[in-house]
Amino acid sequence: MGLTNSTYSVFLPALFLPLLCFCFGICTCTNTITSTQFIQDPETITSTDNAFKLGFFTPFNSTKRYVGIMYNFPVASEPQVVWVANRDKPLNDSFGTLKILEDGNLAVLDGKKELLWSSNVSSSTTNSSARLLDTGDLVLQDESSGSKLWESFEHPSNSYLEKMKLSTHVNGDEKVLITSWRSPSDPSTGSYSFGLVPLHIPQLFLWNGTDPYWRSGPWNGQVFIGIPNMNSVFLNGFSLVNDGEGRFYLNFAGPSKSVYIYYVLNSSGTLTEKTWAVGKQDWEVTRGFPKDECDIYGRCGQFGSCNIEDSPICTCLKGFEPKNKEEWSRRNWTRGCVRRTKLQCDRNNTKGEEGKEDGFLKLNPVKVPDFAEWLNVRQDNCGSQCLNNCSCIAYAYYQGVGCMHWSGTLVDIQKFSDSVGADLYIRVAHTELDKKRNMKVVIASVIIIGSLSSVVSAYFTWKWMVKITGLHKQHLDWSKRVNIIEGIGRGLLYLHRDSRLRIIHRDLKPSNVLLDEALNPKISDFGMARIFGCNEDQANTGRIAGTFGYMAPEYAMEGRFSERSDVYSFGVLLLEIVSGRKNNSFYQDEHALSLLGFAWKLWNEEKIVNLIDPTIIFDRFSQMEVLRYIQVGLLCVQDLARDRPTISTVLSMLSSEIVDLPTPKQPVLAEKETCPHTVHSQHSQQTCSIKDYSLTTVEGR
Ligand SMILES: *[C@@H]1O[C@H](CO)[C@@H](O)[C@H](O)[C@H]1NC(C)=O
Ligand SMILES: *[C@@H]1O[C@H](CO)[C@@H](O)[C@H](O)[C@H]1NC(C)=O
Ligand SMILES: *[C@@H]1O[C@H](CO)[C@@H](O)[C@H](O)[C@H]1NC(C)=O
Ligand SMILES: *[C@@H]1O[C@H](CO)[C@@H](O)[C@H](O)[C@H]1NC(C)=O
Ligand SMILES: *[C@@H]1O[C@H](CO)[C@@H](O)[C@H](O)[C@H]1NC(C)=O
Ligand SMILES: *[C@@H]1O[C@H](CO)[C@@H](O)[C@H](O)[C@H]1NC(C)=O
Ligand SMILES: *[C@@H]1O[C@H](CO)[C@@H](O)[C@H](O)[C@H]1NC(C)=O
Ligand SMILES: *[C@@H]1O[C@H](CO)[C@@H](O)[C@H](O)[C@H]1NC(C)=O
Ligand SMILES: *[C@@H]1O[C@H](CO)[C@@H](O)[C@H](O)[C@H]1NC(C)=O
After folding, report:
1. Which of 247, 375, 632, 641 is deepest in the core (most CB within 10 A)?
2. What atom of ligand 8 comes closest to residue 348's alpha carbon?
3. Rounded to the nearest whole angstrom, what is the distance from the C-alpha of residue 60 to the centroid of ligand 1?
4. Residue 448 counted as domain residue
């Protein structure tokens, strides 16, 4: 007995399917397989929002049938298969069924009722059902207890989807790996795999068989520091969670409901990021790892460094030379480099050489080598600890990661064109150091400069975060917060309007706001600022850099920035200051993806008072003012740039010069709604019409 008429779900645009079901009164929209309802080739089931379907398919240039989950969007290309059940045991006939067995397992059987695949869990239930969720996860559930027996997200094929947990345990158990297909026409387990390695410092790895083929560099709490531009565009939605019991997992959330992103490890070993936005003809490959030859693990061998813009791409680290000059000159880098002058540590000192200690040479930002060990020491001790330990041959310090030491060998160092990565200090013999500079000076300056800058930034970051969250964790009363918010607003007004040049800051966030003793804010770090000409209202950039959570959607997704994208960042800051919570501290909350999502939810539920930091003490009058601030904040973070007020309007609103505030529209990161497709299509229309708007509507004071 079948349920779904697959022709409908295959040929009709997903958006119209619910309508169709409604009109014809036939329910072809089930998302569930139960003990009494199964599907048989070529039937399918679809997720409630129609984004995914589960059913039978034949890969390109193959004759075999497989059961899999695929995206159900009306695109030009072949369906994007994201999971395959019987990948290692194909169906030879087209009489396959997908059903619940008597033991409660989900199974694929062929025409001869032979078992090809099963979820293979031992359970006592006889009444279970399998449901295809809107995330693309297929979940087998015990109907009597409601407990989850099995889910496809814990047994992935070659695709890594939003909300999927790429997990692993420090002891090596419970590893969830993505594995490639053997070829585009053969889904069986191929030789490439992709997963998380939590040892020392968490990193992502891609393997060819058991050999590492690519790695992401260390996780710094927000991004993997070996991936350039990760803190921009789409990759920024990642979060890495340590459950406290040794299990780590990585998951991600896309930038908006109208954009779908997933990662697929293809059969030639490239991890590709694929993106589809509602209204687009087809999926686009937006990134690939490894991205070039230098990105391949250990391309230049031991103690070699790779730079894709150099020719040849490999060079030995300073103080090192090719192990085999003839091979190296033929561009065979496999043997790598060796040290030119023995370290003092490795020499048996003669009297004359005593005291000539080794020193460190600095390599400007690089993807730091593999096998870092993590030391729980402060930045100013990181270098001296390394110097005092003969096993330590290099060190680096990176905010959010901490002190890293290396011993033995240095492999997989890559130099990027822009200053991504961490400064790496390599231990070399005294004679290798620049003669004019005394080693002590090098070390001392490293330590002093390093600690000075970190102290300065740490001081302000500390002041900011600690005081704002009110836990000093001396808490900030409402008038001080008003002072800070207005100060930032006036600073922005100066940049946009009052200074001789019109400046778009592009990276407004808490760490770029410095507070002095009297808590007066100053906007800092103009590293990304752009000066606009008189007649220029918006600009595009191909190189999007910024900080997740503070970047306006049109900037993050399309590189379009304007005064209103700074206003967006200001809105996020404002809401953070009022609520005492960081925008991106919400990832694990099922009900809201971000502070904005949370605020929007409360706003709709008319419980916006709950957003206010509970440590703020106020009377009825100041409560009105706080609520007004929140409303202005929500106006600043509206999805469409043209809906956001200019900063001068914002200041007038805050000071009550403008009394009647508009009702805010939904910000882009708000939580999912029950009817996403109407939102999608509406959204795409709005996005299209953005091109036509101009920024001339400046409300008067
Ligand atoms: C399809 O498969 C056949 C046999 O396996 C092979 O010879 C042919 O090149 C393939 N075609 C494409 C387009 O890959
Ligand atoms: C399908 O055919 C292949 C090749 O003829 C055979 O090796 C395989 O066992 C068959 N599978 C099933 C399930 O019959
Ligand atoms: C099912 O799981 C058991 C142990 O959990 C394993 O021994 C067996 O090989 C599995 N069967 C299949 C068909 O995967
Ligand atoms: C299975 O459980 C569901 C929900 O509890 C119930 O409606 C259904 O009748 C049960 N089916 C069988 C065969 O027991
Ligand atoms: C993966 O390893 C195999 C076997 O060692 C090799 O033939 C293949 O070229 C490697 N793939 C890549 C992309 O290097
Ligand atoms: C894998 O992806 C890379 C990058 O997009 C592409 O060049 C390559 O052709 C793909 N390989 C296959 C087998 O599709
Ligand atoms: C590069 O050198 C290694 C080690 O000497 C050797 O095994 C390998 O065959 C060489 N590769 C090429 C392409 O010559
Ligand atoms: C240094 O000398 C000692 C004793 O003479 C010897 O045991 C040791 O192996 C030597 N170390 C090196 C690195 O040559
Ligand atoms: C020196 O470094 C090695 C390797 O990093 C480490 O195992 C050892 O404990 C360190 N020794 C001291 C005294 O810190």
Report:
1. 632
2. 1
3. 9
4. no
